Amino acid sequence: MKNFTYYQPTRIVFGRGESEKIGGYLSSISRRVLVVYGQGSAVKSGLIERAKKSLEAEGIEYVLLGGVQPNPRLTLVRRGIELVREHGIDAILAVGGGSVIDTAKSIGVGVKYDGDVWDFYAGGVVPQETLPVAVVLTIAAAGSECSNSNVITNDTLPSPEKRGINYDVTRPVLAVMDPELTYTLPAYQTAAGGYDIMAHVMERYFTREEGVDFTDRMCEATLKTVIRALPIALSTPDDYDARSQLMWASTIAHNDLLSTGRVGDWASHRMAHQPSALYDITHGAALSIIFPAWMRYVYKSDVNRFAQFAVRVWEVEPDFNDLEKTALAGIERMEDFIRKIGLPLTFTEAGIPYSRFEEMARRATGGDTFKLGTFVPLTSADILEIYHSVI
Ligand code: NZQ
Ligand code: ZN
User: Fold this and answer.
1) CB of 144 closer than 6 angstroms to any ligand 1 atom
2) 10 close to ligand 1 (CB < 6 Angstrom)
3) Residue nearest (by alpha carbon) to ligand 1 atom 18
4) May I ask the CATH architecture of the domain 187-389?
5) Which residue from 98, 179, 221, 302 lies 20 to 30 Å from 143 (Cα-Cα)?
6) Nearest ligand by distance to the CA of 73
7) How many CA atoms lie within 13 A of 219 on its CB side?
8) From the CA of 69, which ligand is nearest?
9) CATH classification of 11-181 is 3.30.360.10, yes or no?
10) CB burial of residue 257 (10 Å; 0-12, 13-18, 19+)
């Protein structure tokens, strides 16, 4: 196990009805807040109206910034930075999912920086401070409510680029998590969010680090919980127990508890960001195409770990004379699960052509200036093969 520092500063408030009290939770943090939200679901459900009332009850002034799109865009981040400066805002409240939270986080660090906010993503510039970011979470998925990451698409480039940054300064100060808010999610978003949770665990699970049994077991428990709860949430959207398992799993999968003492891979995420930037495909659906393809490409390099994954997570009967067969059976069960929850396994199913695969593979490796991932470091030629394997 590697040495580690675990830093988790986010105050988490979890459970039924907690989002109604957002004004109270924010009152010690803010007097004038920027409320960031998406393209309509939070307005339609009445959540924004209830949040406004709760803020008013505490005498907190607010400015609204709606319209965040999935795969959130830099243009709206820049607009948010202007609004914060114009109105003397002292905190940001994200009401939504990963896209809204990432927009809020990006505004938060952008406001405190004299240059252009894209400098953080283009490389080199490290954000030193942020406005406090608070969250009311509406989808169990990205884990941005406690993570140190945010991912933004630069829509001002001739060919859009989606890039992430990872800095502890961007972790939210407060996350209010009310599973009932996720009842209104379309099935596709529930499924994509659920698979993203699994992907966050699997990026950490496939490591070369030895002596990590404790975090292996926590990863396996998280995965098994999602595998059980996700089909229930899909068939019964207002099942509180299933929704609450998923919501808490989304945070635990990505708040770095499961990274303690080990090094994750993250190649699948970076490969998945490329089609999302060019074709706007939902993050979890890009992952459901890429992750199994990555597994099939690399499993022979550590058959034991893949066999462990198959047996402990997917309950495959181990074949001690043929561990490779066991490993492959685990990948197959995961693919069956992806089909069952209605996500794509190929680019064709997602309506994505193969004409720009080379460009995507080059971008994923910064034009072959580095290799992607740590489990098996991938060149752009490897990535191209992975993309082609799931046309
Ligand atoms: O825009 P609205 O109308 O709100 O609709 C959203 C959106 O269409 C809808 N939605 C959310 N909550 C809802 C709801 N619809 C009905 N009822 C509700 N309660 O769901 C759609 C997707 O929302 P989005 O915020 O994009 O989902 P998610 O949380 O999956 O976030 C995805 C983004 O996060 C990034 C992804 O790359 C992607 O851009 N990620 C961020 C990470 C981080 N910051 O730590 C890590 C992840 O790996 C990921 O990369
Ligand atoms: Zn993800």
Assistant:
1) yes
2) no
3) 185
4) Up-down Bundle (1.20)
5) 302
6) 1
7) 29
8) 1
9) no
10) middle
